[in-house]
Design a protein that fits this description.
about 180 residues
């Protein structure tokens, strides 16, 4: 997270997360202003000997129109929605698998409502059975997130843990255990 910069539209809506180099280019070209600088970062010298504080959040000077994004179903977005936590035993880990709550062979599809993050141990225990038949219970019923951020879902969840970024990210509590 240390080299990532939150990019806001001119109306302070989160648009993107970019790397530090891209943020410096936006500032140098006069397309963005630094809203928050890193306290641990050293100043960066850009053209003409101008010194810029190492940015954490930048705001574009002109408004960028974007269509509403579609939230894509992917492994990363399911993990982010479930806060990298097994939905059967509650173990938090980066070593997770995707489990079909209702197995494919029983008619379960690739949908937000049928996929959950699951640790290897629970996935092996559940196997090709429904949770009820395996004697397992979901911590919470899976569902499609209601909020679609312009930034990717996993960047949104990671960014919501960044103290400065939290002021600019909308409050949204049904994804990734994000609560403010």
């Amino acid at each position: 997270m240390s080299q990532e910069v939150l990019v806001l539209n001119s109306d302070y809506e989160p648009l993107n997360v970019c790397n530090l180099r891209r943020a410096i280019v936006l500032i140098y070209l006069g397309k963005a202003d630094v809203l928050h600088a890193r306290t641990d970062g050293t100043p960066v010298v850009i053209g003409g000997g101008e010194v810029v504080r190492t940015p954490s959040v930048v705001k574009l000077r002109h408004h960028v129109k974007r269509p509403l994004p579609q939230l894509k179903l992917s492994r990363r977005s399911v993990f982010a929605r479930d806060n990298y936590t097994c939905q059967y035993c509650g173990t938090g880990s980066k070593e997770l698998t995707i489990d079909h709550v209702l197995p494919k062979r029983h008619g379960g599809g690739m949908t937000w409502e049928n996929l959950v993050a699951c640790c290897r141990r629970c996935n092996t225990k559940k196997g090709d059975k429904s949770p009820e038949k395996a004697g397992m219970k979901l911590m919470r019923q899976p569902r499609r997130p209601r909020y679609t951020p312009y930034i990717s879902l996993n960047k949104y969840v990671a960014g919501s843990k960044h103290e400065v970024w939290r002021d600019y990210l909308p409050i949204f509590t049904d994804v990734g255990g994000v609560s403010q």
